[in-house]
Amino acid sequence: MASPNPLVAPVTSAQRPWSSDMRIPPGVLRSARERRGYHRSGWRGAGRCPRLPRRAVRRPAPGRVVAIFDVLVVGGGIHGAAVARDASLRGLSVLVLEAGDLASATSSRTSKLIHGGIRYLETAQFGLVREALRERAVLLETAPAFVRPLPFMIPHYRGEGRPAAWVALGLALYAALAGRQPLAGGHSLTEHRRLGASETLSMEPGLRRDGLVGSSLFWDAQMDDALLCVAIAVDAGRAGAEVKTHTALTSLRREGGIWKARHKDTIDATEGESAAGVVVNAAGPWADEIRAMAVGARQSTVRRTRGTHIVLPGIAGERALLLTARRDGRVFFVLPWGRYSLIGTTDADDESPPEKVAPPREDIRYLIEEAGLAFPAAAAGRPVRAFAGLRPLARSRAGNPWSNPRGYRLILEEGMISVVGGKYTTHRSLAERVVDRVVEMSGRPAGECRTAKTPIGTDRAGRINALRERHPGTLKLGEGLVLDEAEVVDAVIAEKARRLEDVLLRRTRLWLDARALRRAAAPVAAWMAQRLGWGAARSEEEIGRLTRSLDDEERRIEEGTR
User: Fold this and answer.
1) Dihedral (C-alpha) 496, 498, 504, 507: value to the nearest 10 degrees?
2) Of 53, 300, 505, 562, whose CB is crowded by the most CB atoms within 10 A?
């Protein structure tokens, strides 16, 4: 007998956001992927780069001051991590320099979706949508611990938003661009259907009823953005890459066809020097600053737009909702995450220093108001978290930020490749294209790209389980939130965590709950102190750093709810 349609059936525990012991079972996307025909747009760069001379590049010997690598990757966000993983799997020597923590900026402040971007069909970005949908299928198969299928609902209201017929046409095109992407149980990620008002309300009883005429259902996917980025970086390290976090690039110059980089550890102030044949600038919002440092570039290629999200106690069911803001007609999401709802995002130009980006009160107020209009019972709700990140969009002539294309550009300047723009969803195919070019430029022998078939983060659960016997501690933080000592130790040993906030905000799923973060701070700092040799002063500094950040966020939430 055919299984019930998962678009309308109750969402099972396996489809809910993950806990430490919840994983999407292998084979949830059971068919072989059709990966041919990836988007391959023309190279955009300042002329051709001469091939670098062949050389024997080895891993640095202990104590050696200058290490020579095939490629230096600047930035430990999703694009930098993906490039490092791809290049290392092909046999190239790789150094990654990240000024903060892995995924500490844009890559942990997303809507946490792996999606084709149905709204981009309105601006005819068909190539981008097709590529993203194919990459969605790749990630569902290679990263089931971090990416899961997610059903979506688009409510339809009389005289508001996109007409239902227009949405139906868009969903049909979305499915056609995706190709065949089956799910377990005989269903498909390309399924979509229309519901009437009564059936819509039976699934989402909290929706505003006035003017509701029905809804449309379809599939996309959800991810844990920070954990996925960290897992990719860890896999790069396992394949041979050297990954340095909290290490700022202080100078970058080219001499005799070789890039020489100076860098400084921002925690212990130690300095170092490295060299590489090719540089990949994957610094995201800082990409223009790296170009200026390296080649004196003055023209801005990055348009920084701020995306703010808030987290409310759960206001909807277990499906994501794609809604139209009544104030300005923009699309926003209400996304399920355990007991909470993640709501966003905004889209506004922001030229403030990327390291200082924060959710302004007007963004928080806007999201609270729109959530209350969509779900009247949420009108009095108070966010438990609020965060903002900068999208490093490829600058275009678009007037409004939300109309700026979401594709990427690769800029070639004197042996350096700068990544500008791009979506989290397409990080793997972007990295494949970058590393293809690195191989061509360097003249080094290298294997074929393997990332479309290589699983991500498969050893994480095993690593943590192996540590439990020697590190049996457990923190029970209320409301079902639990953190094991073994997870913290693994974050330090294997995942490059060096600060308390590295663990709590990007190596666990406690980021949703500020109260849990405060309760966990002291005991987790104690566990880290044992492993890293912190004294009392350093532990207090780490706790204070996290507490001040949460206090500032709480103040912004307070201002946004007045």
Assistant:
1) 0
2) 505
Distances (CA, A) of 224 to 13, 19, 305, 561: 17, 11, 22, 28
**Residue 550 has what DSSP assignment?**
H
Task: Give the model confidence (pLDDT) of 33-92 as tens digits.
Answer: 322 222 333 333 433 344 444 343 444 444 445 679 999 999 999 999 999 999 999 999
Task: Write out pLDDT tens, residues 414-430.
Answer: 999 999 999 999 999 99
Sign of CA dihedral 28, 30, 32, 37: negative
Q: Tell me how far apart the alpha carbons of residues 26 and 121 are, in angstroms, rounded to a whole number.
A: 31
Say yes or no: domain 44-106+227-301+404-442 is CATH 3.50.50.60.
yes
Tokens 């611990």 belong to residue:
145
Q: Token digits for 10?
A: 């109750």
Contact by Cβ (8 Å): 139, 223 = yes
Question: Between β-strands 212-223 and 113-114, what pairing exists: parallel, antiparallel or unpaired?
Answer: antiparallel
- What ranges do the domains of the chain cover? 44-106+227-301+404-442, 460-560
Distances (CA, A) of 440 to 295, 447, 459: 21, 12, 32
Q: Give how far Cα 319 sits from Cα of 20, 222, 293, 335, 471, Å.
A: 21, 11, 46, 7, 37
Tokens read off for 403: 């109309």
Which tokens is 34 given? 């059709």
497 φψ region: left (φ > 0), alpha (ψ -120 to 50), beta (else): beta
Contact 500, 520 (CB under 8 A): no
β-strands 66-74, 113-114 pairing: unpaired
Helix, strand, coil tally for the chain in percent (to 5): 35, 25, 40
Neighbours of 527 (CB within 10 A): 23
Query: Is-contact 378 315, C-beta < 8 A?
Result: yes
The enclosing H or E element of 502 equals helix 500-506
Please list the alpha-helical segments (H only) found in 113-254: 126-142, 164-178, 197-203, 225-238
For 374-386, write each residue's pLDDT tens digit.
999 888 789 999 9
Distances (CA, A) of 346 to 158, 226, 387: 25, 20, 11
- The neighbour count for residue 328, using CB atoms within 10 Å, is 13
CATH value of 460-560 in 3.30.990.10, 3.30.465.10, 1.10.8.870, 3.40.50.2000? 1.10.8.870
Measured CA to CA, the distance from residue 539 to residue 499 in angstroms comes to 10
Cis amide bond preceding 345, omega within 30 = yes
168 vs 135: CA distance, rounded Å:
23
Reading the block at residue 189, the tokens are: 């990620």
